[in-house]
Amino acid sequence: MRLTALNSSRIQGWISELSRTHSAKTVKNGYGLFTAAVNMFAPELKFNVKLPQRKKPNLYTPSTDDIKTILKLSEGTELHRAILLGAVGMMRRGEIAALTAEDLDFKKNTVRITKSMVRTSKGEYVIKPPKTEASNRTIILPEFVMKELPQEGRVINLNLKQLSDRFIKLLDKADVPHFRFHDLRHYAASIAASSSIGASVEAIKARGGWAGDSMMKRVYINQIGDEVDKDTAAINQYFEKKLV
């Protein structure tokens, strides 16, 4: 279609058609790409359209009792290690799947995050650098978590689908409400922010690798400070007390 034929009505129709089969986020991303192209070649064109509202998912955040239950049932398995890294280390599924013993420092009890496993459009699993600078980080973990990790090779020999499938089966066996593996991060963050610990936003973002504004990015780069160190110690002490 020629640029001169574009108008708000036609673009709104396109958005409505996309919305029938795609999520609000996908539609918004598609419209963003479209407007970027139009602004480059025909900046005088302006459209008045309404994008679909993103529906807030009704997610379940697991409790400490839920975490203890699934940890007990998964003892001695690769899934057990993955749950610990998610629920205590705030690590993403892809980060855990890409982790190797070379990323571990058993003397300092640290895990270095520099890569992530992703699935390509062809269904293949590849290891790539994290999407954001904030995701490159070093996490200090409690000793009880480090003891569960291997001294060589991959930390878990599972791809993303295998990890998710085994996690769902574990939840069924444990008879706890279903939640995503990703929600282990939400659990860890909510615990860190709770009155029991009261960790700073900076400490939580630095541990979980969440992106933020320019000030937060400076925090990621210079995260070794007294306050962040205190919060990290408090987070680790909580999990050592509650999950061991």
Describe the structure.
The protein is mostly helical. The chain has two domains: 1-56, no CATH class; 64-243, hpI Integrase, Chain A, CATH 1.10.443.10. 49% of the residues lie in helices and 7% in strands. The chain contains eleven helices and five strands, in the order αααααβββββαααααα. The protein has helices at 8-19, 24-41, 64-73, 78-87, 93-98, 143-146, 160-174, 183-193, 201-208, 214-221, 226-243; strands spanning 104-105, 110-113, 116-119, 125-128, 137-140. The strands form two sheets. The protein has a three-stranded antiparallel β-sheet with strand order 1-2-5. Strands 3-4 form a two-stranded antiparallel ribbon. Strand 1 and strand 2 form a beta hairpin. The longest helix is centred in the N-terminal third of the chain and has 18 residues, at 24-41. The radius of gyration is 21 Å and the shape is elongated. Mean pLDDT is 88; it is low at 213-227.
